[in-house]
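Lecture notes, unit on binding sites. The following record was shown on slide 14. It pairs a sequence with flavin-adenine dinucleotide.
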Amino acid sequence: MKKTGIIIAGAGPVGVIAALACAQRGYAVTLLEAEAGIDDSPRAATTHPSTLEMIARVGLIDQFIQEGLVARYFQFWDKPARTKIVEFDHEILVGETPYPFVVQTEQHKLARMGIERLRTFADVEVRFATRAVTVSQDADGAAVSAESPDGPQTFRGDYVIGADGGRSMIRKALGIDFEGFTWPEHFLVLTTLDDFQELLTGCCYRNYLADPDEWTNLFKVAGDDGKGRWRAVFPTRVEESDEQALGDDSTYSRLQKVFPLPRRYNVVHRNLYKVHQRVAATFRRGRVFLAGDSAHVNNSVGGLGLNGGIHDAMELVDTLHQVVTKQADDALLDRYTRRRRTLNIEFVQEQTILNKKRLEERDPKARQARFDELRAIAEDPAKHKEFLLRTSLIASVRKAQSMA
Ligand SMILES: Cc1cc2nc3c(=O)[nH]c(=O)nc-3n(C[C@H](O)[C@H](O)[C@H](O)COP(=O)(O)OP(=O)(O)OC[C@H]3O[C@@H](n4cnc5c(N)ncnc54)[C@H](O)[C@@H]3O)c2cc1C
C-alpha cells in the first residue's frame, strides 16, 4: 500500500518535531530547509512540562534533558531595588505531569537531535539548502516547488506542512492574513559567560526582572560546551538605532544595570529581534497546514512561542492520523485550526502580552499592585498550582481535549 506522503517546509524545531511524529506513524516524509544548516542563533530554550511530555512522545526526552538545564523554579524581581518579589516552584505540579519542572535546552539542539533521529527512518528525506518557493494542491495531493543546488525541484505528497517560520512563504502563498501587531521596540539578547547566580544572590535559572525603565529576562542555558552561560533579554528604546543597541556602550551599560561589575561583562553573543503578536487567520487551507511561527508569533517573555509550536505539530499529526487511518473524515482537519488558533490566542498571546506589561509597568501604584498580586498567588497553594498549570500550558492541553 502506498505510504501517506508529507512534505514539510522548514527544519526549525517545529518542522523537525512534526517530521518525527509523522515518521513514527509510518509516513514518507520530505523535510525541506532553505538554509545549509540548522540556525543556532539564541532563541528558545525554556521548555515547559506539557511540551516535555510531547518531546517524550517522540522519544527525545532523555537526550533533551541531558543537553539542557533543569529549572524547578522561576522568579520575579524588582530590578531597580535588586529585590526578589516572588518565586514559583514547579514541584507543586507533581501528580499533574511526569515533568514537574522546566528544561532549558536551546532550540537548535532540539532540531539537531530530531534530525539525527529522522536519519534512522528509511522513508525520510531531509534536504538542506532547499528553499520552498511555491505551494499548490489538487483533489489528490499537494506539492511544494523549491530551489535547490540541483536546480528547481517539485516535491509532491498527500499533505504539506508550512513550518517555515514567521515570514512563512507558505502562509503568504496561501494568502492567509497574519493578524495582530508589531511592538515599536526590539528585543536585544546578550549572552555572557559571567555567572549571575554568583552575582545576583538568590536568583535561579529563570528570572524576570521588572523595571519601568528597562526590564530584563535573565536565564541560564548549558551552551554547546555544557559549561553554562547566561542570556539577558532587554527591550530597546524606540528611538535607538540597531547599531546603537548592539554597540558596546549599550550592551555593557545594560548589563551593569542588572548588576554592577567593576569591569566589563564578558559578552560572547548579541542579537536583536523584531517582536510581534500575530496569529494567522486560519491554520489550514485544504491539504496545506501552518504550524509554529508560520502560524503565530509572540514576544518571548514567558518562553511560550516554540512551546505552542510543538503543541501545533503534535495536534496536527494526531489529527491527520485520524483522517489517514479513516477513523474520521476530512472535516476533522478543521478542528486543528479551531483548537490551536483559539488556544494560541488564549494561552500564548494573552499571557505573553500580560507578562510583558507586568515587567514594564510604569505607574508606581499599578506596579505595586502587580507585585502584590503575584505574591498572593505564590502564597496560596491552590492559586500557585493553578498559575503554573496555565504558564506551563498544561491547562491549554486539557482544554484542547474538550474542544470538538
Ligand atoms: C529571543 C527569543 C527568545 C525566545 N525564547 C523562547 C522560549 O524560551 N521558549 C519558547 O517557547 N519560545 C521562545 N522563542 C520563540 C521561538 O524561538 C520560536 O517560536 C521558534 O523558533 C519557532 O520555531 P519554528 O520551527 O516554527 O520556526 P523557526 O525556528 O523560525 O524555523 C523555521 C525554519 O524554516 C526555514 N525556512 C524559512 N523559509 C523557508 C522556505 N521557504 N523553505 C524552506 N525552509 C524555510 C528557516 O530557515 C528555519 O530553519 C524565542 C524567540 C526569540 C526571538
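Take-home: The radius of gyration is 21 Å.
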